[in-house]
Write a structure and sequence with these properties.
CATH class of the largest domain: Mainly Beta
Number of helices: 0
CATH architecture of the largest domain: Sandwich
Helix content: under 10%
CATH topology of the largest domain: Jelly Rolls
Largest sheet: 5 strands, antiparallel
Oligomer: single chain
Strand content: 35-45%
Number of strands: 17
Shape: elongated
Length: 221
């Protein structure tokens, strides 16, 4: 068997490893360094931009049950059952416009042919069923006015949970422009699987009432 002639191997900084450079070419030490010991069970090597270092977080040795995913427990990565953590529902009443009445609360049903003022009391047709437990943390929406613009009195938009508890999304919504947006990113509405939500809208006593009003909204964890 043919071999290369013996040669002195140069030294290198601590942590560098000797690597092949190709057949017939002398090996060379790596530029990056590597840990000299395996520091902790479940840690992996990761680049820090210069060297290879052991991760702070640990990773599971086995994949776990079929369908599991890696989930952070706040310190390490663990194999866990996949769960859905977000819920978004879109409610729109844009095709059939309406003229809301002073000091009246409306509940919005889903569907392009449902007028904005169809339900001035809670109705099963306005219900939104939550398919899993979650906490709603933000909501966004828009009020459109295709006809007469109102004066600048404030309107209230809210979410009603299980037909018992209202949480205001905003108390300063307007109908005084053709497009009026609103949002709330500081919500904390805990819902269980099977709970029911509904969008609500409370009108002020306008000096000039808006006409041909529609609204859309969405909310999520």
């Amino acid at each position: 068997m043919a071999t290369n002639g013996s040669q002195n191997i140069v030294t290198a900084a601590t942590g560098k490893v000797l690597q092949g450079a190709g057949i017939g070419t002398a090996p060379a030490f790596s530029t990056a360094t590597y840990p000299s010991t395996a520091t902790g069970t479940g840690k992996i090597l990761r680049a820090d931009g210069t060297n290879w270092v052991a991760s702070t977080a640990t990773y599971p040795d086995t994949a776990g049950t079929n369908g599991n995913v890696l989930v952070s427990d706040g310190t390490n990565w663990v194999s866990s059952t996949a769960t859905s953590t977000s819920f978004v529902q879109f409610i729109a009443t844009s095709a059939s416009l309406a003229s809301p009445v002073d000091s009246t609360t409306y509940y919005l049903a889903s569907g392009p042919s449902v007028p904005f003022d169809q339900f001035n009391s809670y109705d099963v047709r306005v219900q939104i069923f939550c398919p899993f437990a979650c906490t709603i943390t933000k909501a966004y929406g828009r009020i459109n006015v295709a006809g007469t613009l109102s004066t600048t009195e404030n309107c209230t938009v809210f979410l009603r949970l299980n037909n018992t508890t209202n949480t205001n999304i905003t108390t300063t919504a307007k109908c005084s422009s053709a497009v009026n947006t609103f949002n709330n990113t500081g919500l904390s509405i805990a819902v269980a699987a099977g709970d029911i939500l509904a969008w609500g809208f409370t009108c002020p006593a306008w000096a000039t009432n808006p006409t041909q009003v529609s609204m859309s909204g969405s909310f999520s964890t």
